[in-house]
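Thread amino acids onto this structure.
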């Protein structure tokens, strides 16, 4: 974990969050500024700055995250009608927190382009 990272602080409990799920590798919590009725953030506990910094060894963590996305979509009733998974990478990709994370959005018709 990184001492100065917002998401590392959320995962280690030093900043409160509305936690949904936690295991040894990942942490899931509600976004504080949701853009959909369901807006969860899934993060690895390991500090990885973005998709650009992934290593082969991180594949298992990403697999765990995507399995949890599928499970949460079912749990929250999103799998039937659909949902969106978003990852923003870098400045032009809209990444505002430099800790890899995935947004799980659902509960309404999501238009494209987003807005």
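Threaded sequence (115 positions):
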């Amino acid at each position: 974990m990184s001492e100065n990272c917002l998401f590392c602080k959320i995962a280690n409990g030093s900043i409160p969050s509305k936690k949904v799920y936690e295991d040894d590798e990942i942490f899931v919590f509600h976004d504080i500024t949701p853009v959909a009725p369901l807006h969860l953030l899934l993060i690895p506990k390991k500090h990885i700055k973005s998709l650009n910094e992934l290593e082969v060894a991180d594949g298992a963590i990403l697999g765990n995250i995507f399995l949890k996305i599928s499970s949460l979509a079912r749990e929250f009733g999103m799998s039937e009608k659909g949902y969106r998974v978003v990852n923003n990478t870098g400045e032009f990709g809209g990444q505002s927190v430099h800790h890899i994370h995935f947004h799980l959005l659902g509960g309404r018709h999501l238009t494209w382009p987003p807005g």
